[in-house]
Amino acid sequence: MAESRVVLVTGGSKGIGRAMAETFRDAGYRVAATYRSGGVPDGVLGVTCDITDQGQVDQAFSTIEAELGPVEILVANAGVTRDTLLMRMSDEDWDTVIDTNLTGTFRVVRRATRPMMRNRFGRVILISSVVGLLGSPGQINYAASKSALVGMARSLARELGSRNVTANVVAPGFIETDMTAVLPEETIAGYKSRIPTGRLGTVDDVAHAALFLAGEHAGYITGAVVPVDGGLGMGH
Questions:
Q1: Residue range 2-175+202-225, CATH number
Q2: Name one Pfam family in it (predicted).
Q3: What residues are labeled active site?
């Protein structure tokens, strides 16, 4: 069955990544998740991995391949933020975000797609952000890293489409997570006033978009950017 395919979710210990690991697990997939701290959901193969280290990436894939088999569906979710206004943003703030969100994703994608090409099946799903296309003050590094994933996915779609490997982007908007839970109520109200659906998204909203793109019925969708943002980023 297609649902028994092997899925890797990077950054699967909390928030959106954890929800995606749980959603794929509950749908019958064999799921592995990388994490740097914390843990992963029950029934998911947890592998510690810092995606800024190519050696750790290679080791993580070797472990997953030995335990579950080749990764057939990659959900590249791991990311960090170092928010501050441009004039205060240090080189370290920039390098940390780019090396994790962009270069780290590149490392994982490069390692994942080799077996996909050999097996003539693969789904690559990159988790971007509405911020990548809309922009956000104080997030120049984050926005740059997330918008770059669109170019990565679309180039990958053109390179690997003939091998039955698709590459798509999911762009979440403001999602209810531990990160948004600490924001002041007036800030949340401000977000909601800009979102046509009038609410923040849930981690399940994002997870089910990824689940659809991974499925058998999404084989003719590639190079797409799927916004999960309640309409916030329309036209961008």
A1: 3.40.50.720
A2: adh_short_C2
A3: 142
